[in-house]
Amino acid sequence: MSEETVNLALPYILPSQAQKHVTHNEALQRLDAVVQLVISAELSAPPDAPVEGDCYLIAAASTGPWSGKSGSIAFRQDGAWILIEPREGWQAWFLSEAQLRVLTGGAWTEINPPSSDSMPKLGINATADETNRLAVASPASLFSHVGNGHQIKINKAAPADTASLLFQTAWSGRAEMGLAGNDDFAIKVSPDGSAWQTGLAISPQGVVTTPGKPLVRASPPSGTSSPASGSQTGFGDPGIVQGGFSLGDAVGSGGGHSLVVPASGIYLLLLSASVVSSGGHSISLLANGSVTLAMVTSPALSGPERQTAAGLAFLTAGDGLTLLYSGTAQVEFGNGKTEIVALLL
After folding, report:
1. Could you tell me if 262 and 246 are in contact, meaning their C-beta atoms sit under 8 angstroms apart?
2. How many CB atoms lie within 10 A of CB 285?
3. C-alpha–C-alpha distance, residues 272 and 218, integer Å
4. pLDDT at res. 21
5. Helices (H), the chain
6. What is the per-residue pLDDT across 236-270, written as a single tens digit (0 to 9) for each?
7. 186-245 pLDDT tens trace
8. Which fold is adopted by the domain 215-344?
9. Do strands 122-124 and 134-136 pair parallel, antiparallel, or not at all (unpaired)?
10. Burial category of 334 from C-beta neighbours within 10 Å (exposed 0-12, middle 13-18, buried 19 and up)
11. Cα 97 to Cα 268: distance, rounded to the nearest angstrom
12. Residue 230: DSSP 8-state
């Protein structure tokens, strides 16, 4: 019968052995050293002021009392060093490097993630869950090339599914880009994480649209009229509208409603007028009833004429647009006749 155990070399208490407590205590000392093994550092010689319970890996080129013991584990117990030869497969926490290592092939190497091709979840400084199976909490993340390039791929099962990047504030969505519910590449924004507006969309054919950009085509209510000189008219329901243009207050002198600007910025403005006859007139596009943005003008006309004017202007959200008439003219109203087009650049 062997006098010690196979794996940890713990001494057995033999039959009729005197001072059995010595053998027993030696076994406890070895157990205390290797169970939950924590290695403080790797040294080639004992420290000057060793502390009880410290454990060191004896480095190559060991000297002094540890000479010739390279690779052994030195454990400080009861004022003396217990030297233990580690075995293949032992694990230890290396305190100074904050690493869990395993002895393999004669070297202590950091324990890697599972060697299988997949892991169910991974959290890096964060807790992964069943939805966020990869979770990373970090000031930044780096994805670099091996060779010449690098791609990040986001795949979805079907066109109606989502493959996107979501940007959040306090865990509430504020912006999203990608394929959300179809195969158009879109950029969307939200003020609250619930209501979403598409700012830009690109179809699979490469057609670019900006559904949220303010754009309107509007005319006074359809008909033919001879507005009084100095009177103003508003607009009826716009024929084309996006980006928040809306009808505002009623325009008392000529009918219709002011057209309310939804967002501040520089606008391209186009004024078109269909004049049946004129004794000399002008038609002006106004902001807030007083600021002229574009104007068509003409001397007396005996027959119909199409007149246009364009302009650029900085408009503020909430400004109201109306038309002002001067002189005498018979004018046709309606889309494709007397109308305006406004587009935020």
Report:
1. yes
2. 23
3. 11
4. 58
5. 20-34
6. 999 899 999 999 999 976 789 999 999 999 999 99
7. 999 999 999 999 999 999 999 999 999 999 999 999 899 999 999 999 999 998 999 999
8. Jelly Rolls (2.60.120)
9. parallel
10. middle
11. 64
12. T
Q: How confident is the model at residue 142 (pLDDT cuts 50, 70, 90)?
A: very high
Catalogue the E-assigned strands of 33-141.
38-39, 41-43, 55-58, 73-77, 80-84, 91-94, 99-104, 107-110, 122-124, 134-136
Radius of gyration of the chain (CA): 42
d(CA 276, CA 301): 8
Sequence-distant (≥ 6) Cβ neighbours of residue 276 within 8 angstroms: 224, 304, 329, 330, 331, 332
CB-based contact 159:183 (threshold 8 Å): yes
Please state the domain extents for the chain. 36-110, 157-211, 215-344
Compute the C-alpha angle 201/206/211, nearest 5°: 25
User: Residue 129 has which token pair?
Assistant: 């869950």
Residue 275 and residue 300 in contact, taking contact as beta carbons nearer than 8 Å:
no
